[in-house]
Amino acid sequence: MGKGAYLKGARFERQLKEMLRDRGFWVIRSSKSGVDGLAPDLIALSMNRKFALECKAWKANLHFEKPKMQIMKEFENTTGIPFYIAWKQPREDWRFYPLSALKETARGYTLVLSDLKMGMKLADLTGEESKPSQTTPTELTNSELQLITFEDDKKPTKTSPDVNTKATTPNSTTNNE
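-> structure tokens emitted (177 positions)
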């Protein structure tokens, strides 16, 4: 690997590291992990999830030699930390593949361009899809709302709404239908 390819790969690893940190993960980056091939590029840890990543920012099909695949599987089996291939195509989001998604060939293991869309998105990998969504006030029903009423220009007080009562502001009226 030439110096330019290494720098490009390192830049994308750092980008993914920051994206994971923004989602609450503690991320360890193993610089020059490709030199010895023994360490994953990134290890991401949170209270609920942990995983290791081999990052590739590559336009063409991905290929891994059999010894590299054996090292990744050994890491996964020894540590209990799931290992994924992180693949970044130009102008595309990162996609993530468990080692079992790679297809064995005579020369090693591969992911082809037609596999790209089958990979997990970052939200799937980090578990964001499984979190309950934050409810916004516009999603609440009348029975869940508490209205604020104003009594003689005093401090607002909370009251439970009548199901048929519309929310009011100080300059509007309440209509009971």
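The two ends are 74 Å apart (CA to CA).
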